[in-house]
Amino acid sequence: MLHIVNKSPLTSVTLESCLNTATGGDVLLIEDAVYAATRGSAAEAKLQSAMGRFKIHVLMPDLEARGLGDRLAEGVTPVDYSGFVELTVSNKTSQSWL
Amino acid sequence: MSDTKKFMFVNRKAPYGTIYALESLEVVLITAAFDQDVSLVFMDDGVYQLKKGQQTKGIETKNFSPAYRALEGYDIEKLYVEQEALEARGLSEDDLLVDVTVLSRAEMGALMDEQDVVLSF
Amino acid sequence: MKFGIVVNEGPYQHQASDSAYLFAKAAIAAGHEVWRVFFYHDGVNNASRLTEPPQDDRNIVNRWSKLADEHKVDLVVCVAAALRRGIKDENLAAGFRISGLGQLVEAGIQCDRLVTFGD
With an 8 Å Cβ cutoff, is C105 touching chain A? Predict the structure, then answer.
């Protein structure tokens, strides 16, 4: 299953809820959730510890728009919009954690 | 329509602060009318949607919480509430206005994996 | 593959509508079909023909209309949400139509994938 998160991990519990509840699979960070995937962010450790169960992807156009395109955290896979589409194809279901 | 899919509605937002809880309920009722397999999940602040005793007169807004009790009449009986979310809010099953199945986070995650369509508002 | 997309937020206020549009475009570019986009909650404001953004900004409403025209995407606006927010046939942009929530459920049933964008 593909889990799509769009909230900053510093203002919302959404990413935490997703990582604590979902059994595994792909997580895609878009919009303000991309801040979680940056080196030195307080959320980075949480993301790293979830990597055993999840494959974490980040939507690069959203990261680049926010001036953090060069701070991608280790272990996170960068994708563009076509990569986003591929993730929705390879997973039977997607859940947007709004 | 003959195809039946498993639809899950994930409610993670409190009522009244935003309209999502109310409009989610409307989709749930329509989905049931299409004879689909419907589950409702309440997590995070979404559990507040089911709190007993909502009094909305003072905010001049319709109290839509009785509608959760009417779901049974539409054969919507799969209501799941996350245990950890209740506990974090000082609530228990007795505080809820309708019968639910309380699940642990892990059970909730497993239930999500079984769905065909997951909608969250 | 046949895609359905749900948009829950209005244009210009939240990124959801932009993300949904870029996703739809990428899906079509990859050879998929975007069968229907369903606009719900404040998302119905994506359908207002009266929208006039500044010239140096993207025109979100026209962008949707163009997508519908060029790729036969069915743009459906939820009637109850639309009426609550003053979106009616008389101010509906090209390519959009107003209909019931059943259209959202139908997209869930008919499409191979349903992807939601919101707040």
Answer: no
Neighbours of C55 (CB within 10 A): 6
Cα distance from C25 to chain B (closest Cα, Å)?
Answer: 22
Structure tokens at C75: 């743009």
Q: Where are the domains of chain C?
A: 2-117
> Which residues of chain B does A22 touch, with a Cβ-Cβ cutoff of 8 Å?
109, 112
Reported ipTM: the value is 0.97
A82: chain C residues, CB-CB within 8 Å: 26, 29-30
Judged against a pLDDT cut of 60, whether residue B1 lies above it is answered with no
C70 token code pair? 């060029």
Q: How many CB pairs under 8 A join A and C?
A: 47
How far, rounded to the nearest angstrom, does the alpha carbon of residue A36 sit from its chain's CA centroid? 7
Q: For residue B119, give the nearest of C41, C80, C116 by CB distance.
A: C116
Topology, domain B6-120: Hypothetical Protein Ychn; Chain: A, (3.40.1260)
Q: Where are the domains of chain B?
A: 6-120
CATH 3.40.50.300, applies to C2-117: no
Tell which residue, B120, B110, C30, C85, has the closest CA to residue A86. Answer: C30
What CATH code would you report for A2-97? 3.40.1260.10
Query: In the structure encoding, which two tokens stand for residue C28, read together?
Result: 């079509």
What is the separation of C-alpha A76 from the centre of its chain, rounded to a whole number of angstroms? 8
pLDDT in tens, chain A (98 residues): 999 999 999 999 999 999 999 999 999 999 999 999 999 999 999 999 999 999 999 999 999 999 999 999 999 999 999 999 999 999 999 999 99
- Taking an 8 Å Cβ-Cβ cutoff, which residues of chain C contact chain B? 6, 8, 40-41, 80-81, 100-102, 104-106, 108-109, 114, 116, 118
What residues contact residue B85 under an 8 Å CB cut-off, 6+ apart?
B42, B43, B44, B45, B46, B47
